[in-house]
Write the structure tokens for this entry.
Amino acid sequence: MNATLTTLKTEGLTSTVRKLGYTGWWIAGTVLCVLLGAPIVAARNLEPYVLTGISDGAIYSLAALGLVLTFKTSGIFNFAIGAQAAASAYVFYSFRMDAGLPWPIAFVLALVLVGLGGAFLLERMAFWLEEAPAIMKVVATIGLIVLLQSLLTGIYGTPTLQFPPFLSQKQVDIGGTTVLASQILVTVLALAATIALSLFFRRSRVGAAMQALVDDPELLASQGTSPATIRRYAWAIGSCFVSMSGMLIAPVLGIDINLMLLLYITAFGAAALGAFDNLPVTFIAAIGIGIATNVLSIELAAVDSSFVNRLYTQVPFIALVAALLFVPKARLIERGGKRVRKLPPIAQFSPRVTVVLAVATTVGFLAVPHLVPSVDLNQFTVGVGFAVVLVSLALLLWSSGQISLCHMAFAAIGAAAFSHAQQSGVPWLWCLLIAALAALPAGALVAIPSFRLSGVYLAVATFAFGLLAQNLLYPSGWMFGLDDHEPIVRPDLGLFDTQDDQGFYYLALAIAGLMVALVLGVRRSRLGRILQALADSPAALDAHGVRTKVTRMSVFCLSAVIAAVGGVIIGGANSGAGGNASGPFGYFNSLALITVLVFCGRRPVLGPILAAFLFAVIKIYPPMDSQFLTDYRGVFFGLFALAVALWPGIRMPALPQRGAQRANRSPAATRWEESRTAARTPDAGSETDGGKVLVGTR
């Protein structure tokens, strides 16, 4: 009897959980937090921070809603929403402050130009990328970030532009706490947008078509609905939401694209907590992140530890990582994953060509100190360090199909560990080993999300880790400290002078050669074959009893170790290392590296070498060192990234022809067509009479 009652209770609880659903549990959790937190907020007089947090979260929720909407309908995770929001704010500033237009007119003009105009361009991007692999979608949006960042800073400069408030500043009393009417207006606007979009998706035919668009546009077209029209609606709504968010936040924080790129990670975190699908949960999560950030800013201010003091700024990043680790995997749907075209296989050189290239490359590198001015040699050494980092990234990306947007964090950990060990009196070569081993835990930690995530979700998770490392680990005493610098002294190995620029260059070259040999050895080993199978079909590998989690962990750890060695070379060339965001170990370089690696093709060694030259060396020579290209180099970089990512989709035929091509590629369809053709074709021994086929004997 007791067992029966227990079973019934368990079944009832399970049924309740299922009926409540993801949104219901979030609403229930929010209500519980309010009930438990209200007395604490009242007791500690935190009401102003809570209300400000609600207003801030409402602004970010608009961007998060736009991100979720476009991701649901295109499968494109728009990393560039911060840049797009900044573009809207800058254009709004030009119309309002420079041209002197009334703010409603300036607001609408900016919304039309950036919101709707940007939506048209983004919709074309989404169309050309609809069958692209995840890495190409990531490269395209990174290219857009770099393009907008370079263009906007070139036009408006790097200083933050102060923007006066344009909404009503009338003060309103709520429960004894004074808030601005503008804050109430923004919150109501975000709430209304969330409700309207949720109803739109559930009740309207266009909303349902938007959700079906990404998985099978051809089926949608067969029902008489234009996929292009639906896609344009989705991008127009989503892009306008992001643009409005940028204009609304401008009076609060000023206009600075570099700052806004980081601030809009809040939208990433909210979207992740909503499983990149659920609009009400996304809104609730954005509000929660806003409240947590504001409350913790005052609660942690009295703590002596500078590390703890900064934790409130990391709430969006922590929320993003936590969501990707703990949101049920079934809810993280790979949008359009069934329609993705495969990357072409890695082309192999013939043995003779391989030997010739290896000899030519080696001779070329050995001759560099004798061919370039001595003042430029250090930059070539930095290029060697970046080549090692890129070789490690190519091992991860091209061999196992996994995306990492945090590789410069591994390099920074290696450089910092090397410096600390060297300052403790450890010999140079032992310091190098310690630096490599120090990156192992970081590689293992980043590998954990890869157990359950792939494609764009893994890219977002590694991006969040890189940002956390930049903002939390780099300034800590474990790495570069508040001084943001740790010295790295070049070694005196006794055999030859490695303390001058030429000697250290040759030492870096020898270490890089060992790392390349290690990567090539791995590619030719059993692990390399398993990694290739992992890239092709993880499910098939699991079916054969291979422990894919161990494989993923192994390749991430090995890649982190090699990247750490590259970081030591970069730090040694510069006689020190730091964590400045604009320095060699800045988080943005992780995005740029994967983009330039894709530029240079799927070659495990030649591609990274060429990518390192393009990234680290070519910029010191004319015309790349001119002031114009220094200011707008990112524009050309971004355009090239977009061209590389979009060109395969641009070359493909329009949507109606794609379905016909797929049918023609089907073996069954081919055989059926051949049989019909044979039935219609007269036999060689047949005769015709008046158009009738007379089958006769031979």
About this structure: The mean pLDDT is 82. The domain at 23-338 is CATH 1.10.3470 (ABC transporter involved in vitamin B12 uptake, BtuC). The first strand starts at residue 171 and ends at 174. The longest helix spans residues 2-43.
